[in-house]
Amino acid sequence: MKTYKITDDAKNDLIEIAQYTLNKWGKKSFNEYRVGLEGIFDTIANRTVIQRKISEKLPNVFVTKYKYHFIFYIYENNNAIIIAVIHEKRDILKHLTHRLET
After folding, report:
1. pLDDT tens, residue by residue, 16-35
2. What values do phi and psi take at 69, rounded to 5?
3. Whole-angstrom Cα distance, residue 80 to residue 42?
4. pLDDT category, 74, cuts 50, 70, 90?
5. How confident is the model at residue 1 (pLDDT cuts 50, 70, 90)?
6. Is residue 66 scored above 60 in pLDDT?
7. What is the per-residue pLDDT for 33?
């Protein structure tokens, strides 16, 4: 099984998701969502996920969705790097733009 890396920004996204889920839905829902996200991250690492490019201008950035969150990622040196996990109701461009600047 291949592994994946999570950027600091994406880790912050996950912390926010965890806090919200625990506060709103409880520990059981949190654990279920965490396991689901980890499963998607594994499929990204193994390149078995349904993915799409976010833009022709950014051909190396891919996106997939898990329930209510879009997961943005790249492949670098054959490794998956999760760069963002953003809720579908958030301003995705606002939260993603600075992460794609080089």
Report:
1. 999 999 999 999 999 999 99
2. -125, 135
3. 9
4. very high
5. low
6. yes
7. 95
Q: Say which residue the tokens 């099984």 belong to.
A: 1
Look at residues 7, 89, 18, 91 and name the one whose alpha carbon lies nearest to residue 41. 7
Q: What is the pLDDT of residue 91?
A: 86
- Cα-flanking dihedrals φ and ψ of residue 86, to 5°? -120, 130
In this structure, are residues 72 and 57 in contact, taking their beta carbons and an 8 Å threshold?
Answer: no
Residue type for position 47? R
Q: What are phi and psi of 44, to 5 degrees?
A: -65, -50
Rounded-to-integer distance, Cα 92 and Cα 87, Å: 8
Q: Compute the distance between CA of residue 68 and CA of residue 72 in angstroms, rounded to an integer.
A: 13
Residue 24: count other Cβ atoms within 10 Å of its Cβ. Answer: 9
Architecture of domain 4-100: 2-Layer Sandwich (3.30)
The pair of three-digit structure tokens given for residue 44, joined into one six-digit string: 């990204």
Closest among 34, 30, 88 to 64, alpha carbons compared: 88
